Amino acid sequence: MLFLALATTMPCTAQPPARNTQVDAILAAISATSIEARIRKLASFHTRHTLSRTDSDTQGIGAARRWIKAELDACSRAAGGRLRVELDSFIQQPARRVPQPVEIVNIVATLPGTQAQAANRIYVVSGHYDSMPTNVMDAQSEAPGADDDAAYEADL
Predict the structure, then answer these.
(1) What tens digit of pLDDT does each residue of 113-138 get?
(2) How far is the C-alpha of 120 from the C-alpha of 87, rounded, in Å?
(3) How crowded is residue 26: how many other Cβ atoms within 10 Å of its Cβ?
(4) Which of 112, 108, 107 is nearest to 82 (CA)?
């Protein structure tokens, strides 16, 4: 009983774990303004429907794809070229939401690790850049998709 009484009345002297300065630097570099600007830019392409335009520089999934790749290329330059940015495409054959064959293009950025003990580790961060209006077969209507992954995503 005496031990229990002492344990509950004595102040805890345990020290918090040491801060990781690398993590602190990464967190300090996060900018809400920059994140918002990127979301607004993605929303500005009118639609990023899988079947939308690929030939415009301002509208459709093709314009969005080129902008995203350019952003990742800039990140690569800032990282001394270590980040490899590639386009990976395939032809999606007709399916429930794809009435005709369409080229699907993924943007893949790979950052090799530098620590020997992590040489065989693979970390995947994934997202999608398409957007669709309520009628998922409508490739023309506005579908800015600014809240897809940040709020709620329904696979229709």
Answers:
(1) 888 988 888 777 788 899 888 898 99
(2) 23
(3) 10
(4) 112
Nearest to 143 by CA among 50, 49, 40, 35: 49
What are phi and psi for residue 11, nearest 5 degrees? -70, 145
Q: What is the pLDDT of residues 37-65, one digit of tens each?
A: 998 999 999 999 999 999 999 999 999 99
Q: Structure pTM?
A: 0.78
With beta carbons less than 8 A apart as the criterion, state whether 130 and 155 touch. no
Q: What is the 3-state secondary structure (H, E, C) of the chain?
A: CHHHHHHHHCCCCCCCCCCCHHHHHHHHHCCHHHHHHHHHHHHCCCECCCCCCCCCCCCHHHHHHHHHHHHHHHHHHHCCCCCEEEEEEEEECCECCECCCEEEEEEEEECCCCCHHHCCCCCCCCCCCCCCCCCCCCCCCCECCCCCCCCCCCCC
